[in-house]
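Appendix B: complex inputs.
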Amino acid sequence: MIVVHHLNNSRSQRVLWLLEELQVPYEIKRYERTADQRAPKELLEISPLGKSPVITDDLVTLAESGAIVEYLISKYGNGKLQAPASGPGYLDNLYYTHYAEGSLMPILVQKIIFDIVPQKTPFLIRPLANMIFSNLDTQLLQPEFKKHFDMIESHLATVKTGWFAGGDEPTAADFQMAFPLEAIVASAPTLATPKIVEYVERVHARPAYKTALDKGGEYAYAKM
Ligand SMILES: N[C@@H](CCC(=O)N[C@@H](CS)C(=O)NCC(=O)O)C(=O)O
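Resulting structure:
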């Protein structure tokens, strides 16, 4: 039996959605974020970085959402949710599967850090910290966001079915991309471009996504 070590409000929602699409039986072991939004120390007993998601599947313990998504599709997909074996769909799936955690998530996390640091700065120098981080946001992050969101918008405009690899079903790239895109739509709606908003609606309309949300519990990025 597959066990998903699931942290509330986290990337492991990707794995629940995928398992519901695959209709593979699984169990959820829940972990609650601490007051400072970290994973609880119990997750360190499952995997060395103590982050979510992690799955166990008989003797296999696997962390890193992209690795988990590829493992599950390859082991349990039976042809479902597969990207094309070659051509543009193959390359788009490969690119966006890795881009989600490799390039997009780091700038979203940077944004969270830029917002948190001034709040955690001692009161007397907080105005200075606010000014510095607000300038960093304007000068570094906003131009970066624009490049990324323009690229995603242009790509989504080319895929007729609305999935990143251009097929009739989501593929690994979609399970990876849905999380950062729904975080953008929920947390920074003014930055979300029209096709990104449509994409997130498409994901949220999947019956498997809704079931995963019901089973996963608290999740701040999809209000239904
Ligand atoms: N690149 C990893 C990131 C894992 C990660 O940072 N997970 C977050 C939840 S979204 C986490 O466990 N945060 C709590 C912590 O770091 O204490 C993946 O895609 O699985």
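The beta strands are 2-7, 26-31, 54-57, 60-63.
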